Amino acid sequence: MKIKISIIFLFISINNLFAQVALSPSVVELNIGTNRAQSYKIDYEIKGDPYLGKNLSPFTLKGATVKNVSLLRYNYFTDQMEYLVGNVVYDLDRAENVLISFNNDHRKFIFFINYPTLEGQQSGYLQIVEEGENATLYKKTSVMVEKKLMKEDIMDTGITINEYTPKKPQYYINIKNKFIPLSKSKEDLIKLIEDQSIKDFIKKEKISMISEVDLIKLTKFINR
User: Fold this and answer.
1) CB 100 within 8 A of CB 75
2) pTM for the full model?
């Protein structure tokens, strides 16, 4: 069973990875009703939560409109925005540069068809952590399925279960339309930055490339 929903793209400009992109005014009929109910019967056997405790939420879109969907949730395992029709789970179609903001907890996501990572080019949702005129900080939080041995006591041989386990987040920063995946080494970032004041700030403040607090501090400095 599939559902057809029309998405109407608005004529607005939003940040692309490397430049400003204007979404042209067009109406596109997209198939956003892939029925994944059968796979979810299997998923229920996996322990844990692919939503990291985030429930369905009202949302707002920037860059598109969608009809007949009032609540969404983000699946960190499948990298999909999901909605329900009755008790059946569907994926919202994904469109370049569309911003989705959750009203309940103010998380904001943007979908990129193509963005650079430390391993190569990828597509998917990135969460916007901090943004301003000169720089935007993104992060990618993913969930994987791990096999774990469960024992009731030390004498128990145990059973192997599958469990959703969050990965450590990967951070990205877009500085004046230069999109940079962040490694653990601050020196890698410093080499790619031309502005000496930013380089000095990273060194002076001892900015950690894996600390969200530090990276927010850096992004705010660039946007000062």
Assistant:
1) no
2) 0.79
Tokens describing residue 74: 């983000």
Domain ranges (residues) in the chain: 4-222
In angstroms, the CA 117 to CA 127 distance is 15
The pLDDT tens digits along the chain (224 residues) read 434 343 333 333 333 333 333 333 332 333 444 444 434 444 667 888 999 989 999 999 998 888 888 999 999 999 999 998 888 888 888 889 899 999 999 999 999 999 999 999 999 999 999 999 999 999 999 999 998 877 777 666 778 888 999 999 999 999 999 999 999 999 999 999 999 999 999 999 999 999 999 999 999 999 99
